[in-house]
Design brief:
The chain has 225 residues and is of the alpha+beta class. It has two domains: 15-95 and 147-224, YVTN repeat-like/Quinoprotein amine dehydrogenase (Methylamine Dehydrogenase, Chain H, 7 Propeller); 98-143. 19% of the residues lie in helices and 35% in strands. It is built from two helices and 15 strands. The protein has a four-stranded antiparallel sheet, with helices on one face. Strands 5-6-7-8 form a four-stranded antiparallel sheet, with no helix packed on it. Strands 9-10-11-12 form a four-stranded antiparallel sheet, with no helix packed on it. Strand 10 and strand 11 form a beta hairpin. Helix 1 packs antiparallel against helix 2. The two termini are 39 Å apart.
Length: 225
């Protein structure tokens, strides 16, 4: 038997759900118990967090609204769908390039502080430096485009989301007997499949190669497709 090893990444978060990127090895998105969404690259041991969406109300309703559904799109490699336990549904752009530029700006701010201190012949006061850095970071964050590409009608008590192989349809299910279908790009609810099960639906998934076929599994012990 081969030896194995493990490494803890992003210990500052409380992950609840995760999804690997379909084409980028090492890249995954995970959602937390506190309604946050984080894109990480575990091949980068020094800085695994690519981008974190931690602002209250961005990906969920509040800090008590856990992220339960995540799904990367296939034809739009920088986008993924996120769903929260209280029904918030979003199409998100990872915008890794913008995040990287933001991080570079922060590094430049530090360099500017040091240069200013040298010119003035004295170190800047720590509190003044921290306050100025926070203000610069806030201004840079405000300048970034919104990561939310599309919002969808809420699906209460959500537990599962999935996008079909053509990135056309979004499937949502949860603690109800129904399954809902949305148009990914327009955000319009296309159809509700009522009464598919007699108990709540644990998971729903599209087929990998058939864009109009999906399966659902429920605690009523029935699998439908």
């Amino acid at each position: 038997m081969q030896r194995w090893r493990s490494r803890v990444i992003c210990p500052e978060y409380k992950p609840r759900q995760f999804e690997y990127h379909p084409t980028r090895p090492g890249t995954l998105v995970f959602g937390t118990l506190e309604g946050e969404v984080v894109i990480a690259d575990h091949s980068n041991e020094e800085r695994p967090v690519v981008r974190a969406y931690t602002e209250p109300g961005m990906m969920s309703k509040d800090r008590q609204d856990s992220i339960l559904g995540l799904c990367w799109l296939r034809r739009h490699a920088d986008r993924f769908v996120v769903g929260s336990s209280r029904g918030v549904l979003r199409l998100v752009s990872s915008a890794a390039a913008a995040a990287a530029a933001h991080e570079d700006d922060d590094d430049d701010d530090d360099d500017d502080f040091e240069a200013a201190a040298r010119r003035g012949g004295a170190a800047l006061a720590p509190r003044a430096k921290a306050a100025a850095a926070a203000a610069a970071a806030a201004a840079a964050a405000a300048a970034l485009p919104s990561p939310i590409v599309q919002s969808y009608e809420e699906f209460e008590e959500l537990t599962s989301v999935h996008v079909n192989c053509t990135d056309r349809w979004l499937l949502a299910s949860g603690y109800s007997n129904d399954v809902r279908l949305y148009d990914v790009q327009t955000g319009v609810r296309a159809r509700t499949f009522k009464g598919i099960h007699s108990d709540h639906i644990n998971i729903s998934r599209f087929a990998n190669l058939s864009p109009h076929v999906f399966a659902t599994s429920s605690f009523d012990k029935v699998l439908t497709y």
